[in-house]
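B., you asked whether I could sanity-check this one before it goes into the benchmark set. Here's the sequence:
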Amino acid sequence: MTTPQGVAAPGSAPGAAVASHCPYCALQCAQTLTSTPGERLPVAVSGRQFPTNRGGLCQKGWTSAEVLRASDRITTPRIRTADGGFRTATWVEALDLVAGRIRQIQAESGDDAVAVFGGGGLTNEKAYALGKFARLALHTRLIDYNGRFCMSSAAAASNRTLGMDRGLAYPLSDLGGADAILILGSNMGVTMPPFVQHLAGVRERGGLIVVDPRATVTAKLAANGAGVHLAPVPGSDMVVLLALLHIVLAEGLADLDYLEARVNGLDAVRRSVAQWWPERAEAETGIPADTLREVARLLAAASPSRGGRGAYILTGRGVEQMSQGTACVSAAINLALALGLVGREGSGYGPVTGQGNGQGGREHGQKSDQLPGYRMITDPATRAHVAAVWGVDPARIPGPGVPAVQLLSSLGTPGGPRALMVHGSNVVVSAPNATRVEERLKALDLLVVCDLVPSETALLADVILPVTQWAEEDGTMTNLEGRIIRRRAAVDAPGEARSELWILGELARRLGCDAVFSDEPEVMFDEMARASAGGKADYSGVTYARLDAGEELFWPVPAAPAGDAPHPGTPRPFLDRFPTPDGRATMHAVAHHGPADDVRPGMTTYLVTGRVLQHYQSGAQTRRVKELVQAQPEPFVEMHPLLAERYGLSEGAVAFLASERGEAMARVRLTTDIRVDTVFMPFHWAGAGSANRLTNDVTDPTSAMPEFKVTAVEIRAAHQLRTTPQLEGAVR
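And here's what the prediction gave me:
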């Protein structure tokens, strides 16, 4: 049996094929998982035809089954011993210990003495249950998640400008028809390779524009007449956008009819970009003024108002993980609005979501200021609606908490949380100023980590609780397009690993909470859908039955009145109006101030960070896959040969890097694909090669996004040091 999308139906018999999706990035490539009893790995993975990946998988997706049988997979609860090691425990002992310590800590120091940190890879059901658990079972307002490090600036800018944050507000396949696509701060050729096939059309038409200080895999797609690569000074991407908008307005290239009909705020924005004429922008960014004019005209010619096929502006973490990230994304949206792109089929703006459930993970309650349905926790109507679904008085729901960096910084401090529960995150590697984060975790009275492998964060825990992973569980995810998809179990979990849904329910019962915490994903999904009803991210019309039948459902999907046909979903939500009080988008005038930690005497080089093809996020999973480790075994620092010569470094030599926050070491890789004033480090490793020992935890004032992407560093050859530390952490 197949569905209308050609999706294999779920199977339960040995050897049956199960339709699911990759455990890694937000592209959520479709996979077929076939049970393989008696083999080394429990499932065989193959690509499956789907609108996003069209049957393709990257190297991580093809090898994803390896993590199911990682040699150090955690399969039983573990409790720290007096000598600093761990011993095996039963679930009863471990859960009783956790619940007892939580009760004790809260009795001594109040409800907010216990905090929760979630993850953007959790299913919708788990993210929803985690937010509910924090607020009802723990009575704490202190919950946030690692999506704060991923999408918060794009979300803040989209919400205030367009009225809603839906990632890509159109199916990914729409990109194929465009005449021009401007990509800022994203290297999807490495981070999500199957995405690249959607750029084939624009490359054929010479309209791919990539802004990145490195000639990345994605930037090189614009070579040989396929488009333009702009390599600005790190941290000056916003000036590129302001200058492009200046040119569009000055040369009469804007879609004035669209602006008059659908957009507020043009006059203030026009005044704000007047100061960024191309020659001034060239001095700030290093991009020639004539190149900026060429790009602006290319985008304008592609826009519908000038007879083009359409144009898109896409942003990624490279421009969002900044202390001016919200402003930079606002500048990108302003440019898209000026060209009349947003809310027109075949054109638009969109941030390229990173984590597997980066979209759904922020919609249903694990973010510090939100309740299910992407609604603010301070809104009385929202609180009343969700409280009714939960069967509690609205007053029982705590108020807003604090965002991730502030939460992590407060751990173990006077008046701060004494206990932390971590779900789906490895903050020792992934958080900025990682050394301080590790210090804060060690200062806690209780650290409980739910994980499937002994990540660097789990190894600091007092209790480790083993959990299921993607091929062992049912649920839903929401991909980078706002498409709701089904994750399906293909095999049983090893040992005593359990779903977080079961764990949260057991802990809630022990803590005296009588709210519903079912270990059945469909039960939690249906409740989540009811709780989201009427919100921006309305899932109330979605059911497992509809998803299993192969329906393509993009939120919002409100429940239909009795007797009416089910709502078909909303693949392109801005076509008729924007979800704002007056139905119009609002431009916001923004000002550039550059990175908080800029180069200066003693710290003369820019460090930028990112991913490599073989590894994902903190590397906790991919560093346990032999094939991926062999291909990319250790951290490295990429630099231009001229910069390396200045510091007496050669290919393979060990470079020492220092910032105001910490130190790191890695082997040198020489390349001319990077600016001479810039070095690049991937952030997948712990120990001496941890890039996030260096990165800045200063945050954007609107989104609370930390400034990962630009850090001023000092560089020396390691042989110049009095002692040369070993490169611990290079390989898992």
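One thing to flag: The chain has 23 helices and 28 strands. Otherwise nothing jumped out at me.
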